Every structure is written in structure tokens, then in C-alpha cells.
Amino acid sequence: MPYLEVENTTETKLALITKRSSTHSQDRFTSLAYLLNAEYLQGCYKDLKKHKAAGIDGRTKESYTDEEIEQEIKNTVAKMKDRKYRPKPVKRVYIKKANGKQRPLGIPTIIDKVVQLGIKKILEAIWEPHFLDTSYGFRLNRNCHQALKAVHTMVMTKPINWIVDVDIKGFFDNVDHSWMIECLNQKINDPRFKSIVIKFLKAGVIEEGIQHKTKKGTPQGGILSPVLANIYLHYVLDLWFEKVEKKNTQGYTEMIRYADDFVIGAQTKQEAIRILKDVEARLKKFGLEVSEEKTKIIEFGRFAKQNSINRGKRKPGTFDFLGFTHYCSTSRKGNFLMKVQTSSKRQRQALTGMNLWLKKTRNKLKTKQLWCILKSKMQGHYNYYGISSNSRSINTFHYQTRKLLFKWMNRRSHKKSFNWTKFDKYLQLYPLPKPVLVHSMYDIW
In what order do the strands lie in the sheet with 210-212? Predict the structure, then answer.
């Protein structure tokens, strides 16, 4: 593709790149590195979120003055022009998972975050027109609830009788760098730009003061990782499923993916088994492995309940997707209806987190401050989990949170502040957000 000779801002050029990528799908972009100029990166710095953990240099966004960050960005741009820019290793931290295991996260420095955000916007401008509609994670104008609604639509309106629930084992830690570069080569032919991306992949990790090389993977926690994951799975999984697997399947099949989490609907059990084997073989070719522990095939759909009863089972199986347990049920008229509830794991996480927060802050915050943050936390929970048929779960969350609040408000001093009668009157004066169903799944016909 020729050099983009446009005298305008990088944002305008990104819009032109998106347009060019849409209309000339076979083009490869040969000049991108020049877009990472000081003015553009200054805007990326302003877009960074505040109050985030520091990288290995100990600097946060708040620690920089305007003059400091301006000079740092100018120095970084100069290094990139001279091909001397080297991202610093990410700081390895761990967050505890619900199963007791720990998930590793990599925290870049602020300057590296700025460059990553600049690259991310460029990659999105190029690839967003080509990503398939079946992909929902970390994409512009797409979210979890759209993915959940897509699953609902698939099950309720298509001839789906089986669900293949697939989990990729340690996806972000096992992305093959050579294949990742090959994916980037499909749309980019700018060696300078690609070298910067590769340097981020190879930057390494600092853990307990020791630097470790990264031969594979994209560290979770980095701004660049989600878009690189989408590009990788676009070629490894999405296009392959659409262009190859669907043609080899006689019945109806559909895949819905959110980042590395995806489910596949199939019409027959034989097709579901074959599809899973094909997926396993496809992922293995690109250095990825399916988790046997979390991957399963279940009968699911309008005939699943009766078939389970015929086989002597009380009820059909369920599957979890994006924090919700999906199960077979019926409407008030007795017709088949797929319903969801907050997964037990997510419900425990939410209540455990609420309990720890109330315990930690009950004596640090004034009541007015505590109430304001608590209301925000509860409303945030309803905004995510408040979807059709999930009333019981969010009402349980409200009830249990109310009990936790009563418990910790009474432990703010040695003297008991409330009994339940007084507490109910207090909540009438200062009410907590009520559980609400924010998202409808049933307006699909």
C-alpha cells in the first residue's frame, strides 16, 4: 500500500486506515511507525486510566508532571526513530482465582503503556473491519451482554441440540510468537512497526527482582494483549471455523467467542464430538491446548430436558459462559426457554469481595463516603448481572450484602449500633440500590 500522504492528525489517519482496510482487504500497510509521533502519544497518555499499579520503575500516571511526561514522550519517539527503543520488562504480580490458584499479570511502565495504547489503536483500525461478527471480546462497540444475547439467540432460534463448551488452557501465556508475527504479516508490511510489537512480546518479566525471558505468550494486564489475542484467534480459530469447519458440518453449527472463552452450538452429538476433536487439533497446531478439566459437551436445547428424563436423569446439563450458568427451563406457557443465573463461583467471589471491603473500610471511611462507594459497587453488580431470568441471583446478592453491612456497621465500635428494626429504618432514610434487570435477552424475535 502507498504511503498515506495526509496532512492531518493521527486520529484522522486512523480513520483513513480503517476505510482503506475495509475497501482494499488484500492490502498490506507499509508505513505505520511514523504515526507514533509525540502529539499522538501525548493523547494516548491522557487516555490512560488513573490510580493503576506501577511498573518496575515505580512510577504511576499521577507521579508525572506535565513537563516530565512531555519530555519522556519526546525521548521515546526519538528512540523509536533511531530504532533504539526497548520496552522495559513487565512487573509480574499475581491475583487469586476462585479455585485457589493464582493468575499472573504483567504490569508495564507508564511510558510503555502509552506506546502500547498507540499501537493498539492502529491495530484496531486495521483489523476491526475484518473481525467476524462471532467475536465480541475487547472490541469497539461490543461487550459481554451482546455475546450473551448471541448465545441466547443461537439456542432459542437455531436447531441447536448440543453445546461444546471449550476452555483454552493458559491462552495468554502460550501464544506462539512466530505464529503471532505471521498473523501480523497478513496486514502489515512495515518492519519498523512490527519490530516494536515484537519487542513488547520479547520484553521479559521481572519477578522477585529476577528477569525472565518471554519466549511465548502475551502478558495479561498489558494494554496490547487483548487486541493481539483477537488477531491471533481471528486467524487460528474464527476464520478457520467459518470457512472450513462449517463446510465440513452437515447440520447447523455456530461459534460465539469472547476473547479466549467460546462456546459452539451443534445440531447432533456426532457433529459436536467431531467439532471438538477438530478444534483440539487446530489449536494444537498453533501451540495451544484445550483444558480437559473445563471443556465438555452437553445436550442442551428444547429437547434436552425430556431426553434427560428418558435416560433417568433429573435435569439436563448446564454450561457457564461469561459469569453466568446457562440452563434449560420453560416459560410460563410451558414452552422451552433458556435461562441464566449468576454462576456460583462468581456469586461467591462477589460476596467475598464485598465482605472483605466492608471489613477493611468500616473504620477508615465516614458513613457518607462508605455509603456512596457501596451504592456504586452494588449498582455495578446489577449493571452486569441484571439480565433476564437472573432475578433470584441478584436479589440474593442484595440480601446477603445487606446482612454483611449490618454485621460490619455494628462492629465499627465496641457498642452495638443497630438492631434489625433500627437498621431497617436507617435503610429507609438512606436506601441501597434495589436489584434491577438492566438487560433483556428475550426481545430476539
Answer: 102-107, 90-96, 205-207, 210-212
